[in-house]
Amino acid sequence: MSTSAHSKWSASGFEQKMLCPGSHLLQAGAPDNSSVYAAEGTAAHQVLTWALSYNTQASAFIGRYIDVAPAYTIEVTAEMAEHVQVCVDYCRDVCGEWGVMLVDQRVNYARFLDVPADDAWGTADVIILLGEEIIVVDFKYGQGVAVEAANNPQMSLYALGALDGYSMAGDFIRARLVISQPRVRRAPSEWDTTVEALIEWADTEARRTVADCITAAFGGAVEEFLNPGEKQCKFCRAKATCPALRAEVGRTISGSDISMSAEEFEILPADSTTGADELAACLSKVDLIEDWCKAIRAEAEKRLLAGDEVPGYKVVAGKKGARQWIDSAAVEEYLRKTLRLTIEQAYDLKLISPTSAEKLKKSGVIGERQWTKIQELITQSTGKPHVAPVTDSRPALEITPVVEDFPDLNLTLVA
Hints:
40% of the residues lie in helices and 11% in strands. The strands form two sheets. The protein has a five-stranded mixed sheet. Strands 1-2 form a two-stranded antiparallel ribbon. The chain has 15 helices and seven strands.
């Protein structure tokens, strides 16, 4: 089993490599962009692991705080627990009395890609061994676009890794790949396939992707393997500097073909300042382009809502709003007087914020001396660094360059 910190052929990023093999090289050495949303997803996965491992409900962990690197602390809320429980219930129901459930398992699928063992591994959220069927469940906490299990490269690699790791536990003929994404839809996306079909996909499409990525990296013709598109560019860390994406945007805006010279496809080292003038020129037009994009969306929406046709697009219902009581007073009376719930059970009690405390000070509830003491207990984070033109009235921050060490690409081609 791999001891490497990172998987060069990660399952989660494999579809991006399939659609744009050149992205593998362009992103080499670029840091991952963490966000509070990713941290929430990590925390929700931890709750799933705890609930299934300790055979309890997700609600048992409400109020817990989970530290997520590099700098987030996420509270397990009732809403998070409710969504996690959907996946918990599904896994327990599928596993039943006779299945074997494995939670948060490291799987290795390197031999199916024909790459070194340390280069291709991932972590499957849940694996269920059930007779001749192996079931792999991936929990997604995001609430964006629904992710389908059918022909999903990430799920296919997880399933192959599970088959490789647990082949001695049974004679598996079929595989069920499941994506549980309860914040988008409560019913999971399932795909039933054969083990034979998964191995055939690995031998053809998956290995061809690995070969294309290596050719793009060492063959000197990366431009031939850059293929911008909505799905593959969405999470690409090289999006801002990708020449192929820049050309694609230019073609869309100008309505004409834009040829790219070989120099524009040169891969520059991470610490290079080459292209700074071009970056500044592009940055000066970002607001204008964003306004144009918003105008395009608004115009399309206006026409569709008026009953006009926009080829390839339609109007659909958006995400439902949060649930709320029809009559709060009636519910309060029912919970307290009929069900006799305690105050702690019937109400969400939360400490007031510094802003609310200041309002009490202004109204005279909190005195001046008391407010001075309270102010000593208040902290406020500094503003996040923000890019602005030199004409902005705010003073420029003094930035001290930080040298970061990123892993080399270090691709290996196995004959």
